[in-house]
């Protein structure tokens, strides 16, 4: 009788577990796609790896998609063409206010924050053979690669260069393509805005000598006053050629989600990501900053209720007014 009772209890437990599981997954998509950016950049490596990590652990098919970067991701997630995406807070703010060059006047307010990713440093790279060791060394009329059109780099770096008095010709393309053009002498400089180490720079310095260019105190002060950025140092060892800290500026990135995605799905993804930082770092080193303590760096996007629930349950305070209702 005892054995029968135990078996009956186990069967009851399994039924309850199955029922709870089915309820928790109510409305979950059969698959999902994460908007990243161009190949050779950090977004693509981070986003694709993260999507695969989520898919493997939650049993939902998912993957990364090459896009034009933060601005386009905001548009795709707002409209629901993609459920998830990666964005930088500067472009996110402009998009929410209706100032995106991709859709002028459209306020992209159906996008919610999920979790902090990392800071995007704005860094300049040139071939050592060019003799360019500082921003002031960039010759008049130099051709500068600013990444994909509409990317964070393309949105802000040209304006930064103009603020610093640099006269340049603008070139767009994927980070991999621009790295190749720099190596072939077709452009003079690449102005990267991506989490470090940038795969394209790591690949480039494995094949030739490069200069990772720092800002002077005066240059950094001008940029900090004119743009929504903060100070940042690229540490020695990030790149083989970097022997001392490189002073630059940076902007925070967040993973985002369409606000209509089911709360339970977003909760489970946030939980998985925030509680497994070692796995995230194995996907990309920049993820060492993808920790819950950095949630307060978001001062732009409303929080998804599912993400906010995980943060509030774990001692991080997100007020009701900050959560998309």
From TrEMBL:
The keyword Repeat does not apply. It comes from the Bacteria. Keywords: Signal. The keyword Signal applies. InterPro entries: TRAP_TAXI. Pfam families: NMT1_3 (PF16868). Residues 1-22 form the signal peptide. PANTHER family: SLL1037 PROTEIN (PTHR42941:SF1). This is TAXI family TRAP transporter solute-binding subunit.
């Amino acid at each position: 009788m005892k054995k029968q009772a135990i078996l009956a209890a186990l069967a009851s437990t399994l039924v309850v577990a199955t029922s709870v599981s089915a309820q928790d997954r109510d409305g979950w998509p059969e698959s999902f796609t994460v908007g990243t950016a161009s190949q050779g950049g950090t977004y693509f490596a981070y986003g694709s790896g993260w999507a695969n990590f989520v898919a493997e652990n939650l049993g939902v098919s998912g993957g990364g998609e090459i896009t034009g970067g933060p601005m386009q991701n905001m548009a795709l997630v707002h409209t629901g063409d993609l459920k998830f995406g990666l964005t930088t807070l500067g472009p996110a703010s402009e998009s929410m206010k209706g100032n995106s060059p991709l859709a002028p006047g459209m306020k992209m307010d159906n996008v919610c924050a999920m979790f902090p990713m990392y800071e995007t440093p704005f860094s300049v790279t040139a071939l050592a053979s060019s003799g360019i060791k500082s921003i002031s060394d960039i010759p008049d009329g130099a051709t500068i690669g600013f990444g994909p059109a509409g990317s964070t780099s393309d949105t802000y770096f040209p304006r930064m260069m103009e603020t610093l008095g640099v006269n340049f010709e603008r070139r767009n393309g994927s980070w991999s393509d621009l790295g190749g053009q720099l190596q072939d002498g077709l452009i003079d400089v690449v102005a990267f805005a991506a989490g470090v180490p940038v795969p394209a720079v790591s690949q480039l310095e494995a094949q030739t000598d490069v200069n990772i260019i720092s800002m002077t105190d005066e240059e950094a002060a001008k940029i900090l006053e004119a743009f929504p950025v903060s100070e940042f140092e690229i540490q020695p060892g990030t790149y083989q050629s970097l022997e001392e800290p490189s002073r630059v500026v940076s902007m925070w990135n967040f993973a985002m989600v369409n606000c209509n995605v089911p709360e339970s799905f977003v909760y489970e993804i946030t939980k998985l990501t925030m509680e497994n930082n070692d796995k995230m770092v194995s996907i990309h080193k920049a993820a060492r900053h993808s920790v819950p303590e950095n949630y307060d760096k978001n001062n732009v996007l409303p929080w998804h209720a599912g993400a906010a629930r995980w943060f509030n349950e774990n001692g991080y305070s997100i007020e009701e007014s900050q959560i998309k209702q």
